[in-house]
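Weekly structure sync, notes
Attendees: PL (lead), two postdocs, one rotation student
Agenda item 3: pending single-chain targets
PL asked that the sequence for the first pending target be pasted directly into the notes so everyone works from the same version. It is reproduced below exactly as submitted, 472 residues in total.
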Amino acid sequence: MVLAVVVLGLSWVSGPALAKGGEDTLGPSLEAAIGVSALSGARIGALVVRASDGEVLWSHNPELPLIPASNMKLLTALAVLELLGPTHRFQTQIRADRLPGPSGTIGELAVRGGGDPALTSEDGWRIAADLRRRGVRKIEGDILVDDSAFEDALWHPSWGPISSRAYHAPVGALSVNYGAFFVRVSPAGRQGDAPVVSVDPPVEYLEVKNRSQTHPPGRPDSLRVSRGTSSGSKEEIVVSGGLRHGTESDLFARSVSDPALYAGSLLKLQLEGLGIEVAGTVRRGKARTGGVLLDFEGEPLSEIVELTLKYSNNAIAETLVKSVGMELGRGPGSWKRGMPLVRNQLLKTGIIDEEAVLVDGSGLSTGNRLSARMLVRALNRALSSFRVGPEMMAALPISARDGTLQDRLGAGRDRMRGKTGLLGSSRVVALSGVVESDAGEERIFSILVNGYEGSTPEAMDAVDAWVSVLFR
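Predicted structure, written out during the meeting:
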C-alpha cells in the first residue's frame, strides 16, 4: 500500500478516464449504470481507482464539488483520529461539595461533561456503582449538570428547522444515549381508550402528554410523537393521533432538547436504583472546586469512530468536532473552533483541496462541498495509514452484513466496506468505499449524486447497481 500513497499526487490527481487493457469493459458498464432513469437530471461525480497503485479505472466528473451528505463523516473521522489518536478517551468528572463521611452523605453532586460522544445508560450504571463503591449513600442537595466545556449552541445554524427526530439530536458537552430516547406506543385493550405509552429510559425529565386514541381496525394509523414545551426541569413528549386496535406496537426514536438535564436525570434514576438517596432535583450549575469523586473515562476514540461510521451517527460526529476544538483550541468546544482544525488536518495530509467547503462534521448541512476524488483520497489514506488506517477500515459498514449497509448490496456480501450518504429532502445519495473484485483486486470508489428526479429508493438502488459492477 506504500506505492498508493506515493502516487497520491500523480495518477490519483490526473489519470486517464479509462484504464488500458483488461479493464476496458469496466467503463461502459459503469457509464451505463449511471445513465438509468432513476438518476435522470442528477449531477454526478464518481471515481474508481485500483488500490494497489492508484491507477484510475474510471471517472466521471471526479472534481465536481457536490453535497456529500454523510460521506462527510469519513473526513471527520479520519481527521479526528489523526489529531487525537485512536486511544484517546474523554473524561466525565463527578465532584461533590465534600467527600462522603461515615454516613456516606454529601451535599451537592456535580457532573461535568468532557465532550464524550458515546456515553450510554450502561455507562451511567457504572458511574453510579463507582460512586457507591466510593462510599456515597445520600445526596442531601441537588445534582448539578455542567456542560460549559462546549459553547451554548446545541444545533448548527445551517441545519435549518430542527425536528424532534433522533438524527437531529443536540450537541452538548454532557450527553447520554446520543441525546436520544425511545417511545413505545401500544394500542389499548378497548377502542377509544388511550394507547399505552412507555419511555425508555423512564427518566423524570421526560413527561408524556398522551392525547392519542385507539382507533377501530378499519381506520388508518395517524400516530405522532413530537416534542412539547420545556419547563427547565422537564420536557414534554406529546403523543397524538391514533393507533388501530389489534395492531402491534409502534417504536419511535426521538431526541431531547437539553442533553445535560437528560443526562443528569438518567444518573439520578441509576443512583436511586442502587440505593443512593437523592433528596434534591437535577438542575444546571457549574461544578464547584470541591472534592473529585470520580474521573470516568469513556470508550477509546477508535470505538467511538466505529459507532459514527457504522451507524452514521450525526450526534457523535458533531460532538467530535466540538471536542477537537475543546482539546486543541482555546476555549469551549464549538464548530467555530473545531471545523478549522479538521479542515487544516485534511489540507495538510492532501485529502482535500482549498476548494472544499466543510461546514459541519456529520454532513447534515447542505453547505458542504466535496468531490469524489477527495473521498477516494481519504479512503486511500485509510487503507495505507499505519497510525489510523486499521481503525478507519474496521469502522466502515460491511456490505450485506452490518451497519447502514446491512440490507444493501447482497450480491457483494462481505466484499465491500463503505460509507453511505443520504439527504432525501435535498435529493442527495452518496456511497464511497473499497470493493474486492472477482479477481481479488481492491478498488477504491466514490459516487456522489445530487438532484436526481426519481424517488429516493430508486436512486439508492441505482447507486448500488453501479457499485455492483465493481465486483466483476
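Discussion points:
- The radius of gyration is 25 Å.
- The first helix runs from residue 2 to 6.
Action: rotation student to compare against the earlier draft before next sync.
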